[in-house]
Write a structure and sequence with these properties.
The complex is a heterodimer of chains A (about 325) and B (about 375).
Chain A: H1 44-59, E1 65-66, H2 80-89, E2 95-100, H3 107-119, E3 123-124, E4 133-137, E5 150-154, H4 168-176, H5 181-194, E6 205-207, E7 211-213, H6 223-226, E8 232-237, E9 242-246, E10 252-254, E11 281-285, E12 292-296, H7 299-307, H8 313-317
Chain B: H1 8-24, H2 34-40, H3 42-52, H4 57-66, H5 71-82, E1 100-105, H6 131-135, H7 157-163, H8 192-201, H9 204-215, E2 223-237, E3 246-263, E4 271-280, H10 284-297, H11 313-319, H12 322-330, H13 337-364
Antiparallel strand pairs in B: 1-2, 2-3, 3-4
Helix pairs in contact in B: 2-3, 2-4, 3-4, 3-5, 4-5, 8-10, 9-10
């Protein structure tokens, strides 16, 4: 687990469920909000506008609600939608986790986490179960999310029909009429051409039996986790100015055909570090002679398992940097 | 041994320190100050103000310094600052007819009230590198002239044309509320106010290319530069508690009124049509490109066949913003290994299946 510096104990804000502070496996930190900006950067009027869009999105699961996305101090395409949604739902008592590609330590995740440390001073964590708000890019954590948690997705292209029909005026009409033939034809053509549906990520889903929705470019491996999840799932697309949502306990079905049922990726070998199987793995190239290993994409999941004593071959064989020295 | 990239935080901090170091360059060379940029790189400052949608020379100059001269990065800095500012109201429409004109040229009339005023322009300079400039040169003071007659009043060419009804009237209602795409999400079809706002904030290079494409037949609209004018306009604001207009200051504007081929109907005899461009600061290239694209985007309203990208509202407005464009193009640098892994998985599986089939076939034969 990560321990962050605690620069201003005086700014500690009461947070979360009691007892969390005593748990040494949990990493919480407080930072003083950057002066000159409102809590979590956005002004309250803007947050209200975003919250209204979020409420509408929750009321109409899978429907893309236009919102007046603001220019954020990070580039469009780098999570501005997710950041705005997070800023709108974040309260001083929240505990925030930010992941990119499943990892808490990829540069953009670090950057976004730091942004909220500076502007909101909220506690942050890498532990999935301890977070009340998790902002993610391209993954859903392996650990099952629980009631009360909010998963905020960063979405590049919210429109699942975009690459079939580039015009927004048309796609909005198609959604309004639930006219999804185009999508089914595309999936069928994939099977005819490749023998498989050639969608491996951003695999389209039907939400609550009505809207077809883009789950953001998560691997289709993660699609089943969206179904009937106890957590609230919010999707923010900043550049495209859209917010959509899956309320807790909502049906989410990955599109498929009777004779070509939806299947998720499976890996032949377990994680080379923590021996987990049935999880999504990243391929790591070890040399230029074809050597490679597979490790958990969800770093918190992997670290937790290793802390619990799970070990796979690669751990013993080489000096391991994973038991990292706390900064 | 590799274990999912760690130490991102330290790496980011180090990268930023290195960036600051590179920005400074050779310390034996004097550091550039924002006021030098504001005074001597005025057109860069103008572009950053125009596309940053914020009229503040000093801030734009500082942004250019911070961005190491990368203008799109500077525009981004200005935009991110602008978005945090409180919006206390909207100014009164600016009267460019009352502009304090520094430059005004018309391509449709040889002479006209107010005359042609060449002003500060690169036009007709020979593009020869001026090596004397490297050493710094004494500049002769500019010649000054009294404005010709009528206190130098310069009616707009389009007003001259519309007094004879030769050009369509400007029908926009000055009292109607104007849209603001920075406050409300843009939806299509968009009204002309929003289109003009998007174009005025849009990327100069993108509009230039689109405007150019209309000249080469992708949605041709037979343009004449009615006039281009550059100068200072007063901005008025009516505070609710006062109920009358108070001047807030002046802004430098470049305005282009494009006069385009006629259009008529059974009710209205043929008239020239308009394309309009208005930009903060001095940028004729941008104002002219904007007026070409504005005219092209009126294809629907004027019942013209849409056959060029410049006439396609969704295409133009969705891609004109360089801050959005650069963010999304450059986000491809972010890690995508989760998605790539998914693709690898499928490609390998498809290849295995093909190999299996070939094997089975060979075995059968």
């Amino acid at each position: 687990m990560t321990t962050h510096a605690n620069p201003s104990p005086s700014s500690v804000i009461p947070r979360g469920p009691k007892g969390r502070e005593g748990d040494p496996s949990v990493t919480l930190m407080q930072a003083s909000p950057a002066s000159g900006y409102n809590f979590a950067y956005l002004d309250e009027q803007t947050k209200r506008m975003i919250r209204r869009a979020i409420l509408k999105a929750i009321a109409i699961p899978g429907y893309q609600v236009p919102f007046a996305s603001r220019e954020m101090p990070m580039p469009y395409g780098w999570g501005t939608g997710g950041v705005q949604v997070t800023a709108a739902v974040l309260g001083p008592a929240d505990v925030l986790k930010v992941i990119d590609q499943g990892s808490d330590d990829t540069t953009n995740a670090v950057s976004i986490r730091k942004f909220f440390q500076n502007t909101a001073g909220v506690a942050t964590t890498t532990a999935t179960r301890e977070a009340s708000v998790i902002q993610t890019r391209h993954r859903i954590p392996e650990e099952t999310l629980h009631a009360g948690q909010i998963l905020v997705y960063q979405v590049p292209i919210p429109e699942p029909l975009r690459f079939l029909e580039p015009r927004e005026t048309e796609t909005r009409k198609l959604h309004a009429l639930a006219e999804y033939g185009l999508m089914h034809v595309k999936l069928y053509e994939d099977i005819a051409k490749h023998g498989h549906i050639a969608k491996t990520y951003a695999y389209p889903v039907e939400v609550a039996g009505r809207y077809i929705m883009d789950p953001s470019p998560t691997p289709k491996f993660d699609n089943p986790k969206m179904h009937m999840s106890a957590a609230l799932q919010l999707f923010g697309a900043g550049r495209e100015k859209r917010i959509y949502a899956i309320p807790p306990h909502t049906q989410v079905r990955s599109l498929d055909f009777e004779d070509h049922p939806f299947r998720i990726q499976s890996f032949k070998e377990p994680c080379a570090l923590c021996a987990a199987s049935g999880v999504y793995l990243d391929e790591v190239v070890l040399d230029d002679r074809g050597g490679r290993m597979f490790v958990c994409s969800d770093t918190d999941f992997c670290e937790t398992r290793r802390a619990e004593g799970h070990r796979e071959a690669m751990l013993g064989a080489v000096p391991f940097a994973g038991e990292r020295v706390d900064a | 041994m590799y274990v999912a990239v760690k130490g991102g935080e330290a790496a980011i901090d180090n990268a930023h320190t290195l960036l600051a170091h590179d920005r400074r360059g050779d310390p034996s060379v004097a550091e550039i100050a924002p006021d030098q940029i504001a005074e001597q790189l005025t057109l860069a400052v103008d572009r950053v103000m125009a596309e940053g949608s914020l009229y503040d020379r000093d801030l734009a100059a500082l942004a250019i310094k911070q961005a190491r001269g990368d203008l799109i990065e500077a525009i981004f800095l200005v935009r991110a600052f602008r978005t945090t500012l409180a919006r206390f109201g909207y100014a009164e429409p600016v009267d460019t007819g009352a502009m304090h004109v520094r430059r005004r040229v018309s391509a449709t009339y040889k002479d006209l009230p107010g005359g042609q005023v060449l002003g500060p322009t690169f036009d007709y300079t020979h593009r020869l590198i001026d090596f004397a400039l490297a050493a710094g040169v004494e500049i002769a003071p500019p010649n000054e002239a009294e404005p010709d007659g009528d206190q130098g009043r310069m009616p707009r060419v389009t007003d001259i044309l519309s007094s004879e009804d030769l050009i369509e009237r400007d029908t926009a209602d000055d009292t109607a509320p104007v849209g603001d795409l920075t406050r409300d999400p843009l939806s299509f079809p968009a009204d002309r106010d929003l289109r003009l706002q998007a174009l005025s904030r849009g990327d100069e290079g993108f509009l230039l290319a689109l405007g150019y494409s209309t000249q080469r037949g992708y949605g041709r609209n037979h343009p004449f530069v009615g006039e281009v004018r550059l100068g200072e306009c007063e901005v008025d604001f009516v505070p609710e508690e006062l109920g009358f207009a108070v001047p807030l200051g002046t802004v430098t504007l470049t305005e282009c009124q494009m006069v385009n081929q006629f259009k008529g109907s059974s009710e209205i005899p043929p008239q020239f049509t308009r394309g309009y461009g208005l930009v903060f600061g001095q940028s004729e290239r941008k104002a002219m490109s904007m007026s070409l694209v504005d005219r092209a985007l009126r294809a629907g309203e004027l019942d013209e066949e849409r056959k060029g990208p410049a006439q396609d509202e969704e295409f133009v407005l969705s891609h004109a913003d360089n801050v959005q464009a650069t963010g999304f193009v450059e986000h491809l640098k972010l890690p995508h290994y989760v998605d790539f892994q998914a693709e690898l998985h499928l490609v390998r599986r498809m290849r295995e299946e093909i190999a299996e089939r070939a094997e089975n076939k060979a075995a059968a034969e």
